[in-house]
């Protein structure tokens, strides 16, 4: 329960418009250890915790496709380029919101406006 209280306090600060790299990093680090954490959330702290081996996971897969497509476009092998992924800061915030509610960290009424979480998650 202590971990959930710490997550709640940090997320409240972030939603209040007080972005902190430490807060967002610790939110993800703590979420990683909660049972049932969705892959799109867990992958972010796993990716940063295992920096030498960044060779698998959702972030790796999407980033790899993104850069390969961009490389093909810039080299002239394809005439157009567009990101083919819907894995975004907004989708991660949506997953966070749902997980916070499922875990009882927040009530749905407390997470009506999560727009202040988008930028810290993107960073």
Q: What kind of sheet is the major sheet? A: none
The helix tally amounts to: 6
Task: Choose one word for the global shape.
Answer: elongated
What percent of residues are in strands? under 5%
Total count of strands: 0
Broad structural category: mainly alpha
What is the H-and-E element order?
HHHHHH
What is the oligomer described by this structure? single chain
Distance between the termini: 27 Å
- Ranges with pLDDT <50 over ≥5 residues? none
Helix content range: 55-70%
Walk me through this protein's architecture.
The longest helix is centred in the middle third of the chain and has 17 residues, at 58-74. This protein has helices at residues 2-15, 21-31, 39-49, 58-74, 89-102, 115-122. With 123 residues, the protein is mostly helical. Helix 1 packs antiparallel against helix 2 (21-31) and helix 2 packs across helix 3 (39-49). It has a domain at 2-53 and 89-122. Helices cover 61% and strands 0% of the residues. It has 6 helices and no strands. The two termini are 27 Å apart.
Question: What does the secondary structure layout of this molecule look like, with pairings?
Answer:
Blueprint: H1 2-15, H2 21-31, H3 39-49, H4 58-74, H5 89-102, H6 115-122
Helix pairs in contact: 1-2, 2-3, 5-6
